[in-house]
Amino acid sequence: MTMQNSSRSKNSARSRIVYAGVLGLVLFGIGYTVYQSGGIGHVYQALGGKPETRALSSAYERAHMEADRKAYKADRAAKLPRMPVDADGYYAPPPESAIPDNPYGDAVRRGRAIFTETGTHVKDHVGNAMACVNCHLDAGRRENAAPMWAAYGAYPAYRSKTKSISTLEDRIMGCFTYSMNAQGSPSGKPPEAGSDVYRDLITYMAWLSDGAPAGQKLPGALYPKVPKPEQGYDLMRGLAVYQQNCALCHGGDGQGTTDPEGKVRFPPLWGPDSYNWGAGMARINTAAGFIKANMPYGKPFSLTDQEAWDVAAFINSHERPKDPRQTGTVAQAAKAFHGGESFYGKTLEGHLLGSGVGASRD
């Protein structure tokens, strides 16, 4: 009896081990399937966890697109070329080394020069120290900084700001009017419609967008929308964020910094040489989106949503050139043009914001 019980006990132990092993394999298979499907990540995010970001395992490079274009041109049965993307899934614009050596390439280079040094090349129409590249980083190439490869295929479009259909030329003219304060320039206005300035800028944008589909919003277009924090925004908190993250480049007084030759390195954020009250960046929510995705320079997405809103409010609580649409009082312009998140028309420390500042440039 003792030997039989011992044998039965050993067989029972072996069976339990086998069953446990099989059950373990089954559970592993189920768990691996759930992991691969992303189910765990969805649950983690639902509980408040932040999703891990990682580069895609592969990218469809411009060289692949060019090869597919060549093959499709030779044989319509070949696969269609697709939009070139980088490892993060954003559209990949052509490198500057690919600008052709022909009249088209000459226009591209002129457009890039205007884009990056607007006050040098179009000085008669720039009334501050700003350039296109200040709001559209990396010469208009950077995703989440309103890149030009996304803008080119988005126009003509209806704009609520103008309550009309705007062409791309109209849109650029608006940038001269508001972001570069053209009314404070020597000419007192943006370049005339049909100017070669627009022709070269648009040619540069067209070259940047080669391979990007038109008529659809691409990942990384515009600035990201940052939800307004439950705490709203606070100017004293914004001042602290500015001092810790912005003052080194833009100056403690917000007037920007220059290199030894006097060229603007980092633009002024308020005052006579900054964008005027009619610019999109003067809206707190717009500035918060730009700051969140791009600032401090070289450290994108390093600020919290709260910090981005606080510092955007601090910057845009300072006086700057007048809104050129203002023909009557500040109160009238505030009602007509400045709904939403803006300090325009509000009084801080006894000063009515929107009154404007005098131009400091000749």
What does this structure look like?
It is a single chain. The strands form three sheets. This protein has a two-stranded antiparallel sheet with strand order 1-2. Strands 3-4 form a two-stranded antiparallel sheet. Strands 5-6 form a two-stranded antiparallel ribbon. It contains 15 helices and six strands. With 362 residues, the chain is mostly helical.
Fill in the keyword field for this structure.
362 residues, mainly alpha, Cytochrome Bc1 Complex, Chain D, domain 2, 2 domains, two-stranded antiparallel sheet, 15 helices, disordered N terminus
Brief sketch in words of this structure:
The chain is mainly α.
List the helices and strands and how they pair.
Elements: H1 2-37, H2 39-46, H3 62-74, H4 103-116, H5 118-121, H6 132-135, H7 137-140, H8 148-151, E1 157-159, E2 164-166, H9 168-178, H10 196-208, H11 235-245, H12 247-250, E3 257-258, E4 264-266, H13 284-294, H14 305-315, H15 330-337, E5 347-348, E6 351-352
Antiparallel strand pairs: 1-2, 3-4, 5-6
Helix pairs in contact: 4-10, 11-14, 13-14
Query: Into how many domains do the coordinates divide?
Result: 2
Poorly predicted regions are: 1-10, 20-57
H-E order: HHHHHHHHEEHHHHEEHHHEE
What is Rg?
Answer: 28 Å
**CATH topology description of the largest domain:** Cytochrome Bc1 Complex, Chain D, domain 2
What is the overall shape?
globular
Main beta-sheet strand count, sense and barrel state? 2 strands, antiparallel
Mean pLDDT rating: 88
Helix/strand/pairing category: mainly alpha
In CATH, the homologous superfamily of the largest domain goes by the name: Cytochrome c-like domain
By DSSP (H or I, 4+ residues per run), the number of helices equals: 15
- In total, the number of strands is 6
Main-sheet strand order equals 1-2
Report the CATH C-level class of the largest domain: Mainly Alpha
Percent range for β-strand residues = under 5%
Measure the end-to-end span: 112 Å
Helix content, binned percent: 40-55%
In CATH terms, what is the architecture of the largest domain? Answer: Orthogonal Bundle
